[in-house]
Amino acid sequence: MHPILVRKSRLVLYLLLWVPLGIALGSLLLQTTDLTWTEALALALPLALVYAFACLATFYVCRAYPLRVGGLGGLFVTHLTTAAVSSGLWVGLATAWSHALDRVMGDVSTRFGSGGSLVLFAVGVLLAMLASATHYLVLAVEKSREEETRGLTLQVLAREAELKALRAQIDPHFLFNSLNSISALTTVDPAGARRMCVLLGDFLRGGLKLGAKDRIPLSDEVSLVERFLEIERVRFGERLTSDFAIDPAAGACLVPPLVLQPLVENAVRHGIAGLVDGGTIRVTAEIRGGRLFLVVENPHDDERAATGGAGLGLAIVKSRLMTEFGNEARFDVREQGSLYRVELSLPAVASAPESSPS
Fold first, then answer.
1. Which residue, of 130, 151, 172, is where some domain finishes?
2. Measuring CA to CA, how many Å separate 35 from each of 49, 96, 116, 142, 175?
3. Are strands 339-347 and 291-299 parallel, antiparallel or unpaired?
4. Would you say residue 308 has pLDDT above 50?
């Protein structure tokens, strides 16, 4: 359907724009025929409003024959022919309308004559060609918007698919590590293995609940990390300690789910696990300059770190942040002597306060 015909308001505005054209046409007929001003307006105004719909029809011709670089000549002939046919029919309608006015205003058809018909035909061809050019411009804008919308849609779909793929890699990664730990404990510490199974079940339920959301408060993510560390303490005992320094304002910020837990898991696997005496994992969160800063620090064995790599978890988290925030996110990894430090920086978005029940 023509864009103007979609809404009545557009059609009314379009027809109102043709009223001045009708007056201009009447003035032209007044100068080229023997019609009086009243007769010229009575003839021209209704004809202008009728021809407004004929010019709308050129939209469908433009859509049927889109612009092509190599076929401009053929397009011109096509539209010129269409304009000539439309204008010829318009002149025929004008002749019939002038005879109808004879009954009311006298001998209008005679004064309109062949001179008025030629003027009307030339004006009709010109208006139809202008309408075709305008419609090609409208179609070009419409096509540009469609391509832009399609491009944005594809970007969103690609982003969602990438996020789902990246998120799906995190859960199995941790699960395999935990199952391996349980398997090792079954022979040396059956009670610890059972306790770890219970803790793992609680952790996975919490992880599935949070992972189904696009954003969660950082405080919920921290609670999940604390449950994760409880699981790991079954295996490491006193070798593993933790220290959390979470600013309350930072805890209220919304973050992607499972963005902090892989960092702590990496700290355990590539840090604490390689040290005979173990160590402390420190997690800090604060807001500075409208940005949320998350830091995970752990001691590590320099030689083991040099050969063992940073782990899949860090790569996944970095990919998720780049996908979700683009250049707005920062991901830095630093080694300061025996200290391994991972720092995330992303826009601080506060969660909406929960409404109290009335």
1. 151
2. 20, 16, 9, 43, 93
3. antiparallel
4. no
Q: How many CB atoms lie within 10 A of CB 132?
A: 23
Identify whether residues 195 and 304 lie together within a single domain: yes
Domain span at residue 146 reads: 3-151
What is the CA angle 37-39-41, rounded to 5?
Answer: 70
Q: Compute how many other C-beta atoms are within 10 angstroms of the C-beta atom of residue 216.
A: 21
- Segment among 60-64, 172-176, 325-329 with least mean pLDDT: 172-176
What pLDDT sits at residue 321? Answer: 85
Give the single-character DSSP code of 272: G
CATH code (residue 293): 3.30.565.10
- Residue pair 294/260 in contact (Cβ under 8 Å)? The answer is yes
Question: How much is the average pLDDT of 33-46?
Answer: 91
Q: Is the pTM of this model over 0.70?
A: no
Percentage of residues in the chain having pLDDT higher than 70: 86
CA distance 149 to 159: 15
pLDDT over threshold 60, residue 202: yes
Other CB atoms closer than 10 Å to residue 154's CB: what's the count?
Answer: 10
From edge to edge, which strands make up the β-sheet containing 330-336? Answer: 240-246, 279-288, 291-299, 339-347, 330-336
CA angle in degrees (0–180, nearest 5) for 127-100-12: 45
